[in-house]
Specification:
seven-stranded parallel beta sheet; alpha/beta
Length: about 210
């Protein structure tokens, strides 16, 4: 299956992608990561770390869907270019995605950014329009992952409840602000499955969004 990690702007998506890929690998899934962001930060992180324990491919183009054949018995996890600047890349990845995960900070401003037509490419609209290019004319499931969440701040839970009431799928797991996460892009990742990203893998499995085999 193929997971598209998306965001309208810089919201920690690349860091999340790297940790998610490591947590999935540690959980026993065959993993292949894709750098579909023109910044190439995921590739640079892998190189700085001396290589990840799974392959990292590069394809930040509008032909992603034509170039990439998803793994049949594993998980492709894609760091998709920012939708505000590179909607053509997001359109192509979403054409073959089995799951889209929106990475965002839990704030009213960022919720409006992804939901309302305040930008030329609100995320909800991009995912919805992918249905017209997909078999069955159905967009991939879209789930929201809160990251950069500060400990002891109640606003994250409040925003999650508001988004759920508005019909959004929002993960219970939230990724906190931690130095070992913020600074990880210059170092190898160790024991990702023992932290919040391991909890995220468990929630993905519990909800039936991923499964072994």
């Amino acid at each position: 299956m193929l997971i598209a990690n998306i965001s309208p702007r810089s919201m920690g998506k690349t860091t999340d992608t790297g940790f998610m890929a490591h947590a999935l690998h540690e959980a026993g899934y065959p993993v292949r990561a894709w750098d579909a962001d023109e910044s190439q930060h995921l590739t640079q992180w892998s190189e700085a770390a001396g290589g990840f324990p799974f392959p990292v491919g590069k394809n930040a183009t509008a032909t992603f869907a034509d170039d990439v054949e998803p793994l049949k018995d594993g998980i492709d996890i894609v760091d998709v270019g920012h939708t505000e600047n590179h909607p053509h890349i997001a359109d192509s990845v979403l054409k073959i995605a089995d799951l889209a995960i929106l990475h965002m900070e839990p704030s009213i401003a960022d919720w409006q950014r992804v939901d309302k037509p305040r930008t030329s490419t609100p995320v909800a609209e991009i995912v919805a329009r992918s249905a017209f290019t997909r078999p069955g004319r159905q967009a991939p499931p879209l789930w929201v992952l809160f990251n950069r969440v500060r400990t002891g701040v109640n606003s994250a839970k409040e925003i999650r409840d508001m988004m759920r009431e508005a019909g959004w799928n929002v993960f219970t797991v939230m990724i906190p602000v931690l130095d070992e996460i913020k600074q990880a892009t210059a170092f190898p990742v160790e024991r990702a499955s023992r932290g919040p990203f391991g909890e995220l893998v468990t929630e993905l499995e519990t909800k039936g969004l991923i499964k072994h085999g």
